[in-house]
Amino acid sequence: MASTSITGQVAIVTGGSRGYGEGIAQRLREAGVDVWITARDGDALQQTAERIGCRPFVADVTRGADWDRLFEEVLRERGRLDILVNNAGAGVNIAPLDEQSDREIEASIDINLLGPLLGCRRAAPLMKAQKSGIIINISSVCALYAWPGYGPYSAAKAGLNQLGHCLHVELRESGVRATTITPSWGATGFAEAAGCAVQQTEVRRKVMQPLEMGDLVVQVVSMPAHLAIPDITTLPLIQEIMPF
Fold first, then answer.
1. Per-residue pLDDT tens for 27-48?
2. Which of 20, 145, 150, 153 is catalytic?
């Protein structure tokens, strides 16, 4: 299938300072896209932006005011938005529900579901007016299966998957596409940040790499504009899934 050039398009990638976000932003930039990356850590964000040639914007995706400032800058500079990748997410605390605090539960819902909702609410009217554009939400296989300790995270990601389905039916007639990418194990900092067991080096080489996620995103956004891919699930062959 022939791909469509995305050179000159405008993108926002949240959680772009490391992991999947960095890989996605790098591959989009290499494809000729003008990319804004966001994160809360300004120093790490600036370093990544300089390394891969993207525009940094310090923002907390759980704050509507930060989204407003970001969209104001993008529209002032470029006047449009073609690609929104809601990648920012976190495990916060992987533990049984009764061992989590209210604030940890709220934080998990905020970063993994509220943030994308706020971004999509702002992107949707712009893309509908353009009659083009694509929203990509990066979910997790935890949205599909159950493991101990992942309750709030899994619930938020399941909500994110359903959000993508709703966006598809709401935006389709305007020529706007919505895709949910649901990966499993990846060579990111998720495990360490969530306090999980750190994956072994040989395992990390056999799971999805950030630049591989970036390649996938470029393939999705380069699809002919009249075709949509509502859902993609990626699993490493090394992983056997046998949960509830």
1. 999 999 999 999 999 999 999 9
2. 153
Q: Answer for the pair 14, 87: CB distance below 8 angstroms, yes or no.
A: yes
pTM above 0.85, yes or no: yes
- Topology of domain 10-234 in CATH is Rossmann fold (3.40.50)
Q: Read off the pLDDT of residues 194-240 as tens digits, 9 standing for 90 and up.
A: 555 555 666 777 889 999 999 999 999 999 999 999 999 999 998 88
20 among known catalytic residues: no
Task: For the chain, give every domain's residue range.
Answer: 10-234
Q: How do residues 91-118 score in pLDDT, each as one tens digit?
A: 999 999 999 999 999 999 999 999 999 9
